[in-house]
Amino acid sequence: MAKVADIGSKRLINLAPDAWVKWVTQRPEVVAKEILGSEFHWISRETDVLLKAYSATHGDFLLLNELQLRYTAQMPLRMRAYAALAQERYRLPTYPVLINILPPSSSLTIVSSYEQEFLGLRAIQDYRTINLWEIDAEIVFEQPLPSLLPFVPILRGGGEISVVQRALQALRADAQLNELESLLAFFASFVLDTPLVQQIMRWDMAVLRESPWYQEIEQRGIQEGARRQLIRVLVQRFGEIPHEVEVRFEGESVEKLENLMDSAIAVSSLDEFVVILSR
Questions:
Q1: Nearest to 200 by CA among 164, 171, 236
Q2: Are 257 and 249 in contact (CB under 8 A)?
Q3: Which of 18, 48, 96, 232 could form a disulfide with 127, with the two C-beta atoms 3.0–4.6 Å apart?
Q4: How far apart are CA 28 and CA 104, in angstroms?
């Protein structure tokens, strides 16, 4: 069975690190030097990739890549924390980049900075945001960007069968890229019928289950089911609920949502529930 890294973020970026750093920074003079360890004591995430890069203008710096399946309200704080930890460990300027793979729910607005003010003190962390659904699929073939080949189906203009087949041919033409065919099939299933995807390419569930994105989708499915059930109970008990209350359920753990379900059943008013939600 393939290891997680075989089809995870680190594996993908390592296919062509120079092309990757040029693309995410939009600076043609930048080159990749090495992939660094991104484990910081108690924090380790499979979707984070930390590179040491070099620019003749700016010297050595860190490029922090966060490939997130879907943007959540917690991402700004996460980017702030990881950028600070990376800079502290390696003592280099840090350029954080958030790559969102799939669009978030309509209730969320994607932001490119973390800002907080408390007792007159401010904390600010800017980061670059790249939304893959806004990226033209053609640049993957033109530049080229082999790291993005598995994502072609969800890029702008990439959902056509002919474009997906073009990405498939590119993967099959390179021995280094063969193992990514299942990941391409996985993302193709978001825009094409699954039987069609299985017909034209390899669909290896053993490999897919090792992908951090597949695992996240499974977990998100469980979370979304719990969230919808909680909303249904609230509506049945108290009628229409304010949008700002629904938004606060986004990204909550299944355990938290289940606890809120117990509260939704026990309380006598929506106001009482909101008080519990605010704790």
A1: 164
A2: yes
A3: 96
A4: 30
Q: Say how far apart CA 116 and CA 253 lie, in whole Å.
A: 23
- Cα→Cα distances 171→136, 184, 209, Å: 19, 9, 20
**In angstroms, how far is the first alpha carbon of the chain from the final one?**
44
What is the DSSP annotation of 203-228? --HHHHTTSHHHHHHHHHHHHHHHHH
pLDDT tens digits, 139-196: 999 999 999 999 999 999 999 999 999 999 999 998 888 888 888 988 998 888 878 8
Angle 74-77-82 from CA coordinates, rounded to 5°: 120
- What's the pLDDT at 214? 73
Q: Are the CB atoms for 6 and 210 separated by under 8 Å?
A: yes
Amino acid found at 122: R
Q: Are 30 and 21 contacting, i.e. CB atoms less than 8 angstroms apart?
A: yes
pLDDT in tens, 34-76: 998 766 654 555 568 999 999 999 999 999 999 998 898 889 9
